[in-house]
């Protein structure tokens, strides 16, 4: 009798468990369907906004680059929808749906905020800036100690990131430089992003005691845009170490980590204490003038200098314009877009309004259709 009772009790428990699981499955199925419907509705709104908007230079149109704001948000939301539908998202909740919808709604708000309130003046056209450094052209950003000094010696942190497109890769030259090397005084100061030996793009930083650190990426591509970023933090990047030494510099190409290096004993980063202009596609010679060497020809856009060590996630979002750099950021030292013609080629204000760049010598604004 006891055996029969135990058997019936066990069957009862198993039946209740299966019934509960079955009910849970039904609840989850209904919930996931509702979640998907919520997200699909907002995704359709984004697609409609993107495809139904007019892009151009006139009032109430949107800049062509603004489309990328919605493109990226649509890709992300569609990925979330797919994960909910195929079960990749193991814990589907309304909280996660709300977060995805909030990101999508923010993207739509950011997109709408770029709508032109007036016609773009005829002289301001979307364009790419070509600088023929091999013929003596360059960009002079002027001098500021803030371009190369980022706090207390041995504890400095900064990020340089930009888009560039090389016309040629022959020889050695500077893409953008805040660097000085002086053999007489045995000092190397500041930093320079450079093309080396036709095959490598590097971030070179000067160190104390005649030192250098030069992580880079193999690169020999011409006529193609690439995004390069260098992150320096002498306090150590995210606590990472190699062979017991802190990682203090990383370089990225198109958002991908390519190379990293550790601190050198007794050799901290040495800022450029000379009153040397920061220059693109050329190299300043000491305090005044330009060298005839270190010349490159190419294009530059969306150049930003930050007084903080950006994470890879932040670099990707800046690269993909998921983060719109406005000039109001507390850690932005300076930034230039170089994405449209300007009123005065000798007085191009940066995003913060604090600095001005001028175009010198052989250069050309190439309008984008």
Principal-axes geometry comes out as globular
Fill in the CATH topology of the largest domain: Jelly Rolls
Look at the structure and give the mean pLDDT: 89
Straight-line N-to-C gap? 89 Å
Question: Portion of residues in helices?
Answer: 25-40%
Radius of gyration: 27 Å
Number of domains: 2
* The CATH C-level class name of the largest domain: Mainly Beta
What structural class results from the helix and strand content? alpha+beta
Contiguous uncertain segments of 5+ residues:
1-9, 16-28
Could you state the order of secondary-structure elements as H and E? Answer: HHHEEEEEEEEEEEEEEHEEEE
Biggest sheet: strands, sense, closure? 9 strands, antiparallel
CATH architecture of the largest domain: Sandwich
Q: Given the structure, what is the number of helices? A: 4
Q: Report strand %.
A: 25-35%
Number of strands: 18
Short account of what is shown:
The protein is an alpha+beta fold and 369 residues long.
Notes on the protein architecture:
It is globular, with a radius of gyration of 27 Å. The chain has four helices and 18 strands. The protein starts with a helix and ends with a strand. Strands 1, 3, 9, 10, 11, 12, 14, 15 and 18 form a nine-stranded antiparallel sheet that branches. Strands 2, 4, 5, 6, 7, 8, 13, 16 and 17 form a nine-stranded antiparallel sheet that branches. The protein has helices spanning 2-52, 67-86, 94-112, 312-319, and strands at 127-132, 138-140, 157-166, 173-182, 187-196, 200-207, 211-213, 216-218, 226-233, 241-242, 245-253, 256-262, 279-280, 297-306, 332-336, 348-349, 356-360, 363-367. The protein folds into two domains: 2-112, Substrate Binding Domain Of Dnak, Chain:A, Domain 2; 127-367, Jelly Rolls (Sandwich), CATH 2.60.120.200. Mean pLDDT is 89; it is low at 1-9 and 16-28. Strand 4 and strand 5 form a beta hairpin. The chain is α+β, with helices and mostly antiparallel strands and 369 residues long. Helix content is 27%, strand content 29%.
């Amino acid at each position: 009798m006891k055996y029969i009772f135990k058997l019936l009790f066990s069957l009862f428990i198993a039946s209740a468990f299966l019934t509960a699981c079955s009910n849970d499955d039904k609840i989850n199925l209904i919930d996931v369907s509702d979640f998907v419907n919520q997200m699909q509705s907002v995704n359709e709104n984004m697609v409609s906004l993107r495809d139904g908007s007019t892009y151009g230079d006139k009032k109430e149109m949107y800049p062509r680059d603004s489309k990328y704001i919605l493109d990226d948000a649509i890709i992300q939301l569609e990925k979330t929808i797919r994960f909910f539908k195929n079960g990749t998202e193991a814990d589907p909740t309304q909280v996660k749906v709300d977060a995805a919808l909030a990101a999508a709604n923010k993207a739509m708000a950011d997109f709408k905020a770029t709508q032109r309130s007036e016609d773009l003046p005829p002289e301001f056209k979307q364009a790419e800036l070509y600088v023929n450094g091999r013929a003596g052209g360059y960009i002079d950003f002027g001098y500021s100690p803030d371009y190369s000094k980022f706090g207390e010696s041995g504890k400095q942190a900064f990020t340089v990131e930009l888009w560039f497109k090389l016309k040629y890769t022959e020889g050695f030259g500077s893409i953008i430089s805040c660097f000085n090397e002086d053999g007489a005084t045995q000092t190397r100061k500041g930093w320079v992003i450079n093309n080396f030996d036709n095959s490598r793009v590097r971030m070179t930083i000067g160190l104390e005691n005649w030192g250098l650190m030069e992580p880079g990426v193999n690169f020999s591509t011409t006529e193609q845009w690439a995004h390069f970023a260098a992150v320096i933090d002498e306090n150590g990047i995210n606590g990472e170490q190699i062979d017991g030494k802190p990682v203090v510099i990383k370089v990225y190409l198109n958002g991908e980590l390519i190379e990293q290096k550790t601190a050198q004993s007794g050799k901290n980063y040495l800022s450029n204490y000379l009153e040397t202009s920061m220059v693109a596609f050329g190299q300043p010679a000491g305090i005044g003038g330009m060298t005839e060497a270190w010349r490159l020809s190419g294009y530059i856009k969306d150049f930003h200098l930050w007084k903080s060590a950006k994470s890879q996630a932040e670099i990707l979002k800046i690269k993909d314009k998921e983060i719109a750099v406005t000039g109001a950021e507390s850690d932005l030292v300076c930034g230039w877009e170089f994405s449209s013609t300007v009123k005065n080629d000798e007085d191009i204000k940066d995003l913060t309004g604090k600095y001005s760049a001028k175009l010198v010598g052989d250069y050309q604004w190439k309008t984008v259709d």
